[in-house]
Design brief:
5 strands, 5-stranded parallel sheet, Amino acid/polyamine transporter I, 2 domains, alpha/beta, homodimer
Chain lengths: 654, 654
């Protein structure tokens, strides 16, 4: 028992600080949803091998088999079903493009062993503007990847269970929210999580394509039984070059995601560039074979593109005949890999916004890591925008596709162009010279001419595809992107300018000391005389001897009453009553404050003490006119005025 | 030119106060929309004669001819077109009810010459609970009047111009917004504005009914040419008592608005009760004749109720034959009177919310008169709720009707019951005694027994109709009102309790003086060290010697940097660095504040000085994480903590 003579000493300051720092965050609805906060020290780092790497970085690219062939047929359908035979040759051309892009990107992997996304490559080699263009292109790319992959995944589900068709927007958005929450929790051990479904998908697709070819060779393949009705039944157009180019444009969506590995070289086991490069070769080879194979078989079975049943579903149905388990397995594997592709967007988008944010071209809070050590703002932003797109475009892959690939190919082009310049600079260097920063500066390379040629060719090819895309898909929706992209880039630079100005203005460089405040002139606006007002008045008096209470009188009778009451309760403080014949409160008060501001003497500050009513229950706020809120809002923009809110809680006063 | 020796004296204080009070409000988008503010002294008062009174107060009641007969047919249609012949006898019963209600209300007019709405009568005679029930009933009544009258008005337009049918919700809401803006401006000289269209409507309707009867008597009336298809084509039900009661219930919407005159007795020229009473007689007589007449003729011409063409349109078409001008005149007059009926809701609803608000059962701001001397909050609230109903019920009169009349008849019942009690009390008084407050207290009346009988009979009749309505329309939508009404009444009392508690807590009765603040303990949370921080720090130091800067460190490296910078810039102020391993800012800071709060000594107050960044442009706010906002929000609920916001505007610092 404490001696009654003991001097009361509260907990020591250092104790308090330590206790506050050590306190574990309490459970809340947020911790229930996304898990308990994780301390910064827990940030994980793990590397992956080639097999897992193929799964993690390949899901995005490989999943495009689910929609790219279908979207080619959608365009050709305008010229009638007999035009479907053009799909196969076009798929071969696209595969050729895939080879060029793959070789071109493998050079990037070796030159940027710490990760060389289009943004980094463009920034290091081309400058700020191309870098921000690449950034804008990549961000729209990720958003559309999420929207398209989710929509396509739901389209697969709807193909198998057609009664779900009316709910596809709801299903898509529900799935998106699930993936968002999973990412806000932080996807731990994502490698193992990805490997199984990706290989399941590969297995099922190889099985389907293989079985299809076997039956084709044996002549037992046949056509799709009971295909969905053709949706474009108006008069068939002729097969024009424009139509074929549009088909090609839609087909190039097969290449989306190819660049993923070059962004994530650091995730691989050493030797990183070697492993990453080999993984990329495998991925492209598998993608090319499956893409061509699927397109070929679709032509053979006479598959019909439709919102109601995907062509993958038609293919699986036809190839596997009545084997429901194999059919459902294919649909399930396709859906899951599309969900994983969406997850790729949820990994890439927040990282990119964090990089762009750290350079001041996006709001800084994109660089904050949330309670689960993930970039929460980026994750939520992606979900919101992708969800909006899914809602507006009714979860239709066909409607979303024209918005997409232009950003992908723009970023390809900038990346390859950056690499071309990279080799050019490398060729200028004297042989053997190395620079200290091995990551971003070019080093001399004996084969620089060859490498320059390869990347240069890649850049030209992808630039041509970008142009073809912009022209042929303009009317279908690409115009949105063509308007959006410059808008984004301009916004990036406006944001950057703001941050630069801010840091200049706030900078303490060449700054002496702010002028000392020597005197306070205090104003207390009152709307009535009650306990709350008196508490505020007491506070005001403790700050300065120069206190003025201001009452805006909308009614002469009330004004007189306040004057009389003030004589008793005003504690000797001066009361100014301003008549307001138009019954406005804010305007006369603000004008009065303005006048006082112009009369401040050096070292004097104007302080407004606002009595702030704090109700017991939140809904009580609806019963009050929130004058204090508007007053504060208006005063905040007045230069040099300080606002003091003296709260009076109901229970505190009683 | 001023002498350079003159001591600088700024504008005198009284000058400033006068200048501020005399200043005319500047032009703004608001003044463009609703007109320039009007000084309180301009509040108008005018009285009207009987003819104008019939127009102003009759628009609501008379306009019901536009929908009441139609809604009777809608119900009968379920039993096939041959059931339409029941409409006429039912309309006669409803007219009988109209006579009873009219006579009953005329007694109210004489007893309450200063205006006796159901709310006033129930409050004075029955007590607080029935008064609030009447208030809730009347408010829902006004809301539904606005929704139904607008929807019916647009239905008339759509009948004449069928291509507008898909846009009827948009048209209705557009019209509602127009009427809202007109009412926010304040409808001046509303009498003359109302008189012309009301009499135009009466003229056109009398002409249509008259011409119809003439042609009926001459045997040339015939049937509607090309009537709209019957919408209820499923198997015809038998004509049951329940169906007839539902028809009756729908028909009683003809009585809505009859009570208007009793609310507005003060608007009449002297002798007010006499004039108001006579006007009411005329109104009811016209309404009864036209209602019965229209219903009869509709039966003769075989009109079919439809969302696509109103029965009024069918009647006018048939009666006037090919005379397009007369037809369009009828449609136009009907539409305009329905708009005027809506305007009645916009007059009644805000006045009633102001009355209920002044008694503390609704938020007080309903009693504030806006810049144009109208109850702006009530006007906007009505438009929002009515607009919501129009949107949800797709501007369908048939869908809205079941929600309506139950409130009307409930208020009729409460009003008549109140009057019954009024006469009962009057009968108890000794003969000739008068009470000082002639308006609310009963006075002895020789004929009190007769009057009691009349009001009692009225109360019983309307109570029965209310019950019939509640039962027969329950499934059609009346259940919404049956749930809503008690909810509203409970809310009213909850609001009232809040205001009573508030005024008790804030009361200065038996209040000495608040304890003087003798010492300030000041905390300055900082997120960084820059010019804004230093300005806040200087302000804090001018308040007290006991200042502590608090930095929440999410990263040990940054924490160390801040500590070092503080040694130079901290001005000797103590800095507390709290580690936050979970990267949270708010939670550790709030816990620290909590600890300090528990250690305050008597007369000491804890003040938090928050450096508040004010950006140059509003969108710059999107680039900052608004920590100060959340901090303030969290601190406001801490008992006894005072928040000081020291703004640093970008331009102010540079």
């Amino acid at each position: 028992m404490a001696d009654s003579d003991t001097i009361h000493t509260p907990e020591s300051e250092s104790n308090v600080i330590e206790r506050v720092a050590k306190r574990k965050p309490p459970r809340s609805w947020r911790s229930w949803l996304i898990g308990r906060p994780m301390p910064t020290a827990d940030a994980p780092h793990q590397t992956i091998g080639k097999a897992v790497g193929l799964a993690v970085f390949g899901a995005d690219a490989l999943s495009s088999i689910a929609y790219a062939p279908q979207e080619m047929l959608v365009i050709l359908a305008a010229a009638g079903t007999q035009a479907f035979r053009y799909a196969f040759p076009i798929s071969l051309i696209i595969t050729g493009l895939l080879v060029i892009v793959t070789i071109s990107y493998q050079q990037t992997i070796h030159a940027y062993p710490n990760g060389g996304g289009a943004y980094t490559v463009a920034r290091d080699n081309l400058g700020a503007l191309p870098a921000q263009v690449a950034g804008a292109a990549l961000l729209t790319d990720y958003i559309l990847l999420a929207a398209v992959a989710i929509s396509s995944g739901v389209a697969q589900i709807v193909s198998a269970y057609s009664f779900l068709f009316p709910y596809r927007v709801l299903l898509s958005i529900g799935l998106l929210v699930l993936i968002m929450v999973a990412n806000l929790r932080g996807v731990k051990e994502s490698g193992r999580l990805f490997a199984l479904p990706t290989y399941l998908f590969l297995g099922m697709t190889v099985l389907a394509v293989g079985a299809g070819f076997l039956r084709y060779l044996m002549g037992t393949l046949g056509a799709v039984a009971d295909p969905p009705p053709i949706e474009f039944t108006h008069a068939a157009q002729p097969v024009t070059l424009f139509l074929l180019l549009r088909t090609f444009s839609n087909g190039t969506t097969a290449l989306t995601g190819v660049e993923c590995i070059s962004n994530g070289v650091t995730a691989f086991k050493e030797p990183r560039p070697h492993n990453a490069s080999q993984t990329m070769t495998w991925m492209s080879a598998i993608l090319g074979v499956l893409f061509v194979g699927v397109t070929f078989l679709l032509g053979q079975i006479g598959a019909v593109p439709s919102e109601a049943e995907t062509v993958i579903s038609q293919l699986a149905r036809t190839v596997f005949g009545g084997r429901a388990l194999l059919y459902l397995g294919t649909i399930a594997a396709t859906t899951i890999i599309l969900v994983l592709a969406t997850n790729t967007a949820f990994a890439g988008f927040p990282s990119l916004t964090a990089i762009i944010g750290s350079e001041g071209f996006l709001p800084r809070y994109f660089t904050y890591r949330g309670s689960r050590l993930v970039y929460s703002y980026g994750i939520v932003a992606l979900a919101l925008i992708a969800g909006f797109l899914i809602f507006v475009f009714n979860a239709s892959v066909t409607a979303l596709i024209p918005l997409w690939a232009i950003g992908v190919f723009l970023s390809f082009t900038l990346s390859q162009a950056g690499m071309t310049l990279h080799w050019w600079k490398a060729g200028r260097l004297p042989s053997g010279q190395t620079t200290p920063d091995a990551d971003s500066s070019p080093q001399f390379d004996r084969h620089w001419k060859w490498k320059l040629a390869i990347n240069g060719f890649g850049a030209i090819c992808t630039a041509v595809v970008t142009l073809v895309f912009a022209v042929t898909k303009f009317a279908d929706g690409a115009w949105i992107i063509i308007i959006l992209m410059p808008t984004l880039v301009i916004s990036f630079f406006a944001i950057h300018r703001h941050y630069v100005n801010l840091s200049k203005t706030l900078s303490l460089k060449d700054f002496g000391m702010p002028g000392r405040t020597r005197r306070h002139q205090v104003i207390v606006p009152i709307s009535n005389i009650h306990r709350g007002t008196l508490v505020a008045l007491d506070y005001a008096r403790s700050l300065s001897f120069d206190v003025t209470a201001v009452y805006i009188s909308m009614d002469p009778v009330e004004g007189k009453k306040v004057r009389n009451l003030w004589e008793w309760w005003g504690d000797g403080v001066r009361l100014v009553v301003i008549d307001s014949p138009y019954r406005a409160f804010l305007e006369p008060f603000l004008e009065y404050v303005d006048t006082l501001c112009t009369r401040l003497r050096p070292g004097e500050r104007l302080t407004i003490v606002v009595p702030q009513f704090i109700p017991e229950r939140w809904w009580h706020n609806l019963l009050h006119s929130q004058t204090a809120f508007w007053l504060r809002f208006a005063l905040l923009n007045k230069r040099g005025v300080v606002i003091i809110e003296v709260p009076y809680q109901l229970e505190a006063l009683s």
